[in-house]
Each structure stands twice: as C-alpha cells, then as structure tokens.
C-alpha cells in the first residue's frame, strides 16, 4: 500500500469500519427474518399468490403482512444510504481538508493533487460500492420469496426499484461524487453536507417521479366491453378507449359500467379499451435507465473535480 493510499486509509478507516459494521448488522437481521419467513411459507406453491389478483392461504398472507413492514424499512434505508454516503463520505473528502488547511501539508510531500485525490476517492468509492451492493442484495434476497404478492411490496415500489439492483450502487457512487465536488467548491464541511443531501435526494426524487416519462408502457387491448386482462404484477399506467383508426381517447369520456358503458362506447365509436401497463420485466429497463443516469452524473462530477484540482487554485 503506497503512501497516498495508506494516508487515505488512515483518514477514512473509521467511516469504512462503520459501513462494514452496518452491513454486518443488516445481514444478521435479514438472515433471521428470512428464516422466519421461509418457515411460514416453505413447502407451499407461491405462484398462485403473485399479482394483485393472487390468492394465498391464510398463513402465507399473514407472513406477507408481517414481513412487509421490515422489507419497507430496509428498502427505505437502502434508498437513503446514498445520501448518507455523500454527506459523510463525499462532502468531507476534500472539503474538510480545505477547511482545516491540512491539504497543503499533504501536497508538500511530493504528491500531485490528482494522485492524492485518486487515492482518497478510489478507496471511498470502493467502500461505497461494497456497502450499497451488500444492502441492496440483502433487500432483494429477503423480498424475493414474497415478491409482487397481493398487499405486499411490488417491483415498482420505490423501496425495491430504488433500493435494490445496480441502480442502488450507481446512486451511491453518484452521491459520493456529488459530495466530493460540492465539498471542493464550498470548502466548508457542514454546508457541503447539507447541499449534498439536497442534491442526492432531489435527483432520486426526480427519477422516481418522472422515470415513466422515459419508458413507453405496453398496451393491453380488449375488444369492446370484454373483460380486461388481469393486471397481475404489472404497473398500471391508466386506461384509454380505442377507435377504429387506432387513436386512443381519455377514459373520462366513458366512466360508466355495464350497459351504460356499452352505450357510451357505441355513442363515441369506441371499439376497445386499452390498459397501459409496465410488465414486471420492465424492472430491468428502469434499472438500466437509473444506472446510466447516475453513472453519467458521477463521471461528470469526478471529471469536474479532477479539472479543478489540476488548476490547484481551489487548494489555496
């Protein structure tokens, strides 16, 4: 381990050890909870329970009900983890050194600014990736046996879509990059931590609210007033009515049911209904979208930090 990496370890070891302790505690909790879950649902075919139209035996429904709050708690922790990493790992990474003036000591030991930054950021990024990947994997493992079950947690819930998969790891790397860049620019640790939290949580909220605008849903067309296809584990994006020319019209035009619906559809010339949904396979589409956005932002922020450090005026 060379000098710059050794110094980075010495300065970050408490935070790294705290992260590993957090993962160990989560692992023990999830292992115990999942064992209890499997004891309740083991030996039963859970395929009939999947989706909003599923039907389970009472003991399985109880198990789903009892474990859903815990899964949501861990999912919420996984969603908030990047902001914590950005605040406590990214913002002080350079900002604290600038605030205290200790950066000048480090850079007078024959170490270039970018080499110093690479060692510090590289170690922090490795730790952030390991911790976030472990928490995301524990969440997915606990949730898997009762995934997408009626009254449970679905793949499109933010607890799962934001808290598991590669997007969770990418978000942590983005948060670390954002905190580092903000710390360099602000040069004060506490304000940088606050701005980092706002930036990370704001970006996550934006993707959560608008991600469906970037992915086209699947149309499930039902002729006339024939019963529509069961939604299953899909994510509903609303209904439309269809005319013979293929144009879709708002649902508000006919809000009736039964014979009134049939008469209303005939009056408007509607020949079918369209249910717009995102099937469960779109989980990976949304994951890919979020991952690309987070990694792109992280790369841009790291490049910005490297350029500013190269100019060195931000270090004096």
Furnish the topology, listing elements before pairings.
Layout: H1 3-41, H2 58-100, H3 103-106, H4 113-143, H5 158-161, H6 166-186, H7 189-210, E1 218-223, E2 235-242, E3 248-250, H8 258-268, E4 272-278, H9 283-311
Antiparallel strand pairs: 1-4, 2-3, 2-4
Helix pairs in contact: 1-2, 1-4, 2-4, 2-6, 2-7, 4-6, 6-7, 6-9
Q: Quick recap of the structure?
A:
The chain has helices at 3-41, 58-100, 103-106, 113-143, 158-161, 166-186, 189-210, 258-268, 283-311; strands at 218-223, 235-242, 248-250, 272-278. It has 316 residues and is an alpha+beta fold.
Structural summary, described in words:
The structure is a single chain. The chain has helices spanning about 5-40, 60-100, 105, 115-145, 160, 165-185, 190-210, 260-270, 285-310, and strands at about 220-225, 235-240, 250, 270-280. By secondary structure, it is of the alpha+beta class. The protein has a 4-stranded antiparallel beta sheet, with no helix packed on it. The radius of gyration is 25 Å and the shape is flat. About 35% of the residues are buried.
- The overall pLDDT average reads 85
Which sequence of strands runs across the widest sheet?
1-4-2-3
How many DSSP-defined strands? Answer: 4
What series of H and E elements makes up the topology? Answer: HHHHHHHEEEHEH
Note the total helix count: 9
Largest sheet: 4 strands, antiparallel
- End-to-end C-alpha gap: 28 Å
Radius of gyration over all CA atoms, rounded: 25 Å
Low-confidence stretches: none
The residue fraction in helices comes out at: 55-70%
The portion of residues forming beta strands comes to 5-15%
Query: Structural class, from secondary structure content?
Result: alpha+beta
Name the shape in a single word.
flat
